[in-house]
Write a sequence for this structure.
């Protein structure tokens, strides 16, 4: 594995244990997702890899070399898109991308060639020569991604790369994330957008309270849920009736929604039950669809960040 | 080679980032200088020759200090708070390159204000200044010391404390520092403190090279500045390379 973290622990001076015995490995050509709530310890982890923070204990290795002992090497081997906006006000995207590419040691010609390809792929052309101070947050995120991708290191770390980015360009961005991995980079992707992560990562780890509470491919993690389908009930605010699931699988309540795990052969029974609840006025609507990574996440962490969903993330079967 | 190349690229980056502020900074510095050379004669209608030269040479010194020890720490403190300094520290280049590049750009911001300050003073009082050949290294030394110390302040203190301290520096520099008057006017205890602090040395070096016919240039002043400059740079570099 190209990037290897072993028992990485970070305790801040305040006593906060932000990372607790985290062991992860990301291989060449792999997109690895790091999921978790705000404060789960994701950014702390990334900041240690790139040498901004020193681990309290544990090791970070890239290609077998100790990054804790040589943070300068870590910065050269890693491309990094930080969670905060990049400080490029006053620069145009063209200048910012070119400068970063050259700072990473690529020639002007090579940088220009790669920048042109990225700008086309991310559809950034119309903003290429506009002062970044006048760009929207989403466009700046795309520029920040292009800065990280123009001359990528062997490890590419992206901290919430899609924040504020419009749905169309998000897709373009995910395609470029995959391209980075296809060219051999180990991509560590930090996000709390579970729905997007499910589509984009090869493997992932879910962080909670600084610890890895689950790790595997999206399919492996969904397999652990023990339910192939998910019935989502939107509870009626006026009803005193609390639906009790007749299914043995897990059910999780988030706000006015109740998510119930359903086995594949229970689809018919689930719809009948939901319709009876709707007739009784206990729920406003229901949705039956395949179980998602979000269900795993909710079951493990007990709540979920709500992020704007893309249009096609609409329900597979909705009754109102 | 890597140091030099990354230095050049980072100077470009930082200069582009700050280009919008350069006219504003120059305007503020010019106003500082104008305020001093126009305002002091209102307070003290009869000024002797020495006082006139002190005010004319004190204005550029105050202008340099106002950028290096006030505007710079506030800006850098803001960058620390918003995370942009961390981003620059994560770049794949030696941190020394970044620090020296940023200081270079700040010097570029400070120096035009000094020239304007000198010109404003000479114009207001009709002075024929015979500047010393040492004026360029002297001004660079003063500006570098002010910027290094300002950077050090912002690098180690929390942002709010930096803002408060820089406000206190403004008052201290304007009212209680021997820049527009001679140290002998101060109470003995404050004169002793100023013999150690860098502000008096900044004033001595500025007036001793801008108006060498009027003021001597105490060799010790350069030494005091050098010590503070190295201290400021060292503290800043340590903060820049420190992993929390």
């Amino acid at each position: 594995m190209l990037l290897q973290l072993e028992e990485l622990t970070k305790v801040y001076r305040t006593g906060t244990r932000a990372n607790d015995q985290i062991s992860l490995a990301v291989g060449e050509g792999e997109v690895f997702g790091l999921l978790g709530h705000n404060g789960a310890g994701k950014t702390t982890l990334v900041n240690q890899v790139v040498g901004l923070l020193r681990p309290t204990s544990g090791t970070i290795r890239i290609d077998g070399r100790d990054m804790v002992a040589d943070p300068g090497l870590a910065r050269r081997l890693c491309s990094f898109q930080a969670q905060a906006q990049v400080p490029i006000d006053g620069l145009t995207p063209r200048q910012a991308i070119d400068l970063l590419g050259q700072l990473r040691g690529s020639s002007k010609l090579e940088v220009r060639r790669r920048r042109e390809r990225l700008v086309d792929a991310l559809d950034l052309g119309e903003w290429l020569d506009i002062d970044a101070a006048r760009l929207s947050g989403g466009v700046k995120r795309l520029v920040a991604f292009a800065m990280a991708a123009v001359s990528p290191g062997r490890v590419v770390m992206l901290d919430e790369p899609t924040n504020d980015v419009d749905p169309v360009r998000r897709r373009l961005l995910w395609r470029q994330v995959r391209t980075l991995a296809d060219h051999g980079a180990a991509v560590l992707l930090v996000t709390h957008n579970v729905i997007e992560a499910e589509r984009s990562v090869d493997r992932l780890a879910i962080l909670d309270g600084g610890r890895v509470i689950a790790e595997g491919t999206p399919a492996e993690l969904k397999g652990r849920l023990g339910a192939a389908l998910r019935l989502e009930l939107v509870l009626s605010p006026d009803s005193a009736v609390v639906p009790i699931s007749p299914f043995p699988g897990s059910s999780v309540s988030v706000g006015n929604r109740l998510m119930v795990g359903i086995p594949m052969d229970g689809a018919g029974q689930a719809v009948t039950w939901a319709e009876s609840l709707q007739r009784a006025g206990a729920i406003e609507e229901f949705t039956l669809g395949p179980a998602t990574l979000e269900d795993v996440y909710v079951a493990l962490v007990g709540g979920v960040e709500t992020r704007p969903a893309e249009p096609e993330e609409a329900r597979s079967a909705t009754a109102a | 080679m890597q140091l030099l190349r990354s230095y050049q690229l980072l100077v470009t980056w930082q200069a582009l980032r700050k280009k919008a502020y350069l006219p504003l900074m120059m305007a503020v510095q010019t106003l500082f200088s104008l305020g001093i050379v126009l305002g002091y004669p209102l307070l003290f209608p009869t000024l002797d020759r020495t006082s006139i030269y002190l005010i004319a040479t004190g204005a550029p010194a105050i202008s340099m200090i106002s950028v290096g020890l006030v505007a710079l720490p506030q800006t850098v403190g803001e960058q620390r708070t918003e995370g942009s300094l961390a981003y620059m520290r994560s770049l794949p280049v030696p941190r020394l390159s970044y620090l020296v590049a940023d200081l270079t750009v700040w010097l570029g911001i400070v120096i035009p204000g000094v020239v304007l300050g000198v010109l404003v003073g000479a114009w207001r009082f009709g002075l024929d200044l015979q500047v010393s050949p040492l004026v360029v290294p002297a001004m660079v030394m003063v500006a570098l010391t002010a910027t290094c110390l300002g950077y050090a302040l912002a690098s180690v203190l929390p942002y709010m404390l930096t803002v408060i301290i820089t406000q206190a520096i403004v008052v201290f520099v304007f009212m209680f520092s021997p820049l527009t008057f001679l140290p002998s006017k101060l109470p003995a205890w404050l004169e002793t403190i100023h013999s150690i602090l860098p502000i008096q040395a900044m004033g001595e070096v500025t007036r001793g090279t801008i108006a060498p016919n009027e003021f001597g240039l105490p060799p010790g002043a350069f030494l005091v500045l050098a010590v503070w400059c190295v201290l400021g740079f060292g503290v800043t570099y340590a903060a820049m390379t420190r992993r929390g």
